[in-house]
């Protein structure tokens, strides 16, 4: 059990030496003599203070004992602990003191002291002399004045201390100073003065120089009176202001000059254009109102007949009302610029194609497309639209722009085709006329050089139609009795019905006329009709090719070109049409294609970009062809011919993208194996699947003269002789194809492997009996090709290096160990989401602050209540005191009076 | 057997009585039923026969009906069914059991009846070859019914029933040339599959027959029966379905699983000795692992056959592979130079074969071990990648992920896709500059091909394959190998057809791109001075 409070107090007093054995008188005297007494008193006081603190359980608050040791110096509340103990009494006292300093003062001042503060510069600064104070104030004022004006406000500077009227000073000071101006400026300022706005400028100028002069003068006389610093500061300020004024004025002047010059140039420009075009300039469509109105006014003023002028006026008014709103015409471009534009357009299209070929994502496509199409048509409106799309280019936007672009193109194509294909017909029907050829090629050149119709051309629709008539008139069908109007066919049967009566050669003309009749611009539902017509045309080319009487390829070509130009307007419809054809081909006769299928595939080659990495039509088409090449085991020469046609098409498809097609290599090898004359030695066939093809395919007799493969070779029905020549033709073609394949694939890394067998085969073909039965041209091409192949093989072998595909940066090893947090604090939120973490941090801070503020406010309120209570008590006690005093005073008086009375009474009694 | 005979007497008497009433009935119904209704007539005859012995001669009439067939086919069938009933009844009644005294009148009748039974059976066997499927099926049912009845009532020995009796004849007819396949199928389905004893004896018969030389069609038919047996016995206690009652002896062969298996094994072994056509061989190989091998007590016996098939080459080898694999996997068979053989299967046709997916499933299992030598794995990789140069897209899409998986499993093979040539040069400065591919394609031993020194240029080339998906798949070997493994199953079953379907089924979401330039000429040659180059088609083909 600890000793009692009193005991402890006694012991501590004794230990500190506050109480102790009494000192003798002598000792005390000595101590006071050498000041030890005073010292000891201080010591004693300190010791007593310590003891007091020690024994006051409320003075010091020890922090709650830590349960375990922690590394962090932060408490659970997240605040840094200030030492182990806190002194609530002291802090409270401090707070109280602070409040007494601020809050109490305010309280006491309330309703007693006014709100006006003296904020004059330097007023509260005792270090400044009155002069310095004045100077400071002046500078500040000046600075404030010079800062506020805007750039072009010419009259802001120092009118605050001067009243003006029309810029004329009202102070009448020295008007002769006006001339104090430099002459060049004056010359122009005459004009300026006319509009009265710039009137103030010379005035100001004058005033400036005025002050300059005065300051100079004053400088002379009172240099020693004024303090140096003041004068120079003012000087600087004024100079700066003056210079800025001058600059501003000069800039304005220069700008006006430029404007004048520009206006003059603008006026002269139309003439210049006319000169450049070399044609007399037409009168502008809508004459400038100024030019036309002024003579009228003049005439009116001159006293022309009133009625006549009225009439004229009405006429003009009507004209103006009837007049179409003037449209901005496209600038007619000079030749080089046109070429340049076309070149950039083509370049961009090519870039786009390359991007598609690499199979890159197309997110930028729509933009690029718009850009490209912006180039097609007129510049500015398109640009504007593009900008809009840039802001919010949705699907609709893309669509719209596409259609805009396409429409132009389409119009043009019609116009062009009407002539071009007509002339081609002539060429194929009759003897070809050079004239027509030239024209067609010219037109076609225009098609691709001039680019697409500009608005100007679009406006001349009538013109294009008249052209159409002439074109038609020139080639009005084989029989010359073609009708001019047709129903727009919507199914293939319709087409058959429409074309029943007409010669096959007239078909393109009919298609043209249908396209012209149902042009989308003529009626709103024409677009749908033409869309159907386009798909029907696709059906028709395949149908035509399947007919036993082989149609002229000129017709097919014209039709395909029509489909192509329609495809620009109806890409989806035509794409679907082609796809459905492919589907039928794939599902019903995948190894027995009809000529129609071949034509369809050929058309795909020209209509769609075959180099795309993926294309909705081209990819299935490629698959269809390679399926035939891979799965069909040829039994007859026609099969071989079909295969050869497919190979040709495949290579044509890949002419740009140069993708490798294994089936083509296989088929070429198999065909060469099958065709090669004479028994071939049984060699190892390498890694290609070797079909044992029938012996009948082998070239037997010595070669007849070579010919070119004909499209219709794909259909059976030739006699033996023809068969032999067909075999030769096939061999020839295959050699050419190998040649082409080398061109396409020579750069591939496994070229040697893929082509080694072909080389062996070619060598075999060029040896012994086989060689003997070939004719000279074949021998020659065979020799050349195998030489070329050999070279390429060697080169490829030499160039080839081992693959180095994995030059990637090494991947970081995935770790599943949690990130170690130094000085982890469980109160802290280690939120990986930065924003959220910040937000919660802010919230916590806000909460803490709010708490603190509330606490402070409560304390303030307490303080105020306490203070007011104290005041009231004081007031009350004062009143009490006063009351008591008064009462006592009165009582005293009363008492004295009473005594006096008693005395009086006694005296009176006594007298009596 | 006096007891039986005497026992039969009352029945006969009764029948006689019945017969009287039957006769009277018949006399009433006969006149109008005579012409139009053969059913009526046949039924009448049947009743008569069963009614009295004296009417036994009507059996002849019915037999004639069957024999005539032709126009009265319906009647023939009715007669057949009726006769079956008649004979069954008679057998059940013991009328066909030989009496003890051979000389007696009874014996003659029994003899006669037995002869008629023979006739009837022959007639049915003939019916079995009828053109009409329904009649064939009926005949089969009747015959099997007779087999059952004979076995139960005629007191024959097992041998007599199954080996020499009607069953034997039925069986011979079934495998004969010109027998319709569906009857065999029905036989297998209804009897062989259902009843353990039928199956047992079928196998026995097959083994017997196959031990002799058979003509080609019979071999085919035998095979069809053999291969149609689907049930595989696993447990002894599965043996409980017997067509002809369970055998009396508790330790009968029919109760023994081993005996069953032995019988099946015998049948198969006897059968496999025949010269088989390629198709037959293939179909056998097809069944090998799940239908044939499980029957074998000693699957090693199949090894000869499998090895022979494997040596044939081509797709037959492919199919033998799964059989071999079964033996290796389940029977712990050791096959010398297995990988070399496997390697030799990677010929030009493999990626074009229709068994491609099957082969790759197996190949994947064979090469799954990570303990295979890298040189061997590299050879497989290189060989297959060489083959992809001539493969259809569907083949390529299998090979590339497969290669990826192998490279992932055998990191030492990744030199094939990434080789730091500078480092290499430092190593072998003495060697002259390499030319071409160090890989020896014609080397048959996969350990000696030097494939691991080569690179997979082929796959690199296929990154520019014409088909976008194939090209994309080929690109996986040049990307970081972050994926653990590709699931080969996803790539196995593709073909031109499925790929085209996949392409063409998709809806067009976006309008297809159109070539911006409309060509002047598609079929015609450009004019000489026009400055445009003709397309390849135009150059090589003439269009007129």
UniProtKB/TrEMBL annotation, chain A:
InterPro entries: Nop14
Name of the protein this chain belongs to: Nop14-like protein
UniProt KW Nucleus keyword: yes
Composition skew (Acidic residues), residue ranges: 153-162, 377-388, 426-447
Keyword field contains Nucleus: yes
Domain of life, per lineage: Eukaryota
Function of the protein: Involved in nucleolar processing of pre-18S ribosomal RNA. Has a role in the nuclear export of 40S pre-ribosomal subunit to the cytoplasm.
UniProt keyword list: Nucleus, Ribosome biogenesis, rRNA processing
Taxonomic source organism: Lepraria neglecta
Principal place of residence: nucleus
CC annotations in GO: Noc4p-Nop14p complex; small-subunit processome
Segments for region (Disordered): 1-41, 117-447, 891-912
UniProtKB/TrEMBL annotation, chain B:
Matching SUPFAM superfamilies: ARM repeat (SSF48371)
Residue ranges of the region described as Disordered: 1-40
PANTHER family xrefs: NUCLEOLAR COMPLEX PROTEIN 4, NUCLEOLAR COMPLEX PROTEIN 4 HOMOLOG
Protein's recorded name: CCAAT-binding factor domain-containing protein
Domain named CCAAT-binding factor: residues: 317-474
Alphabetic keyword roster: Membrane, Transmembrane, Transmembrane helix
Similarity section: Belongs to the CBF/MAK21 family.
Primary location: nucleus
GO biological process annotation, one example: ribosome biogenesis
Cell compartments where the protein resides: Nucleus membrane
Membrane topology: Multi-pass membrane protein
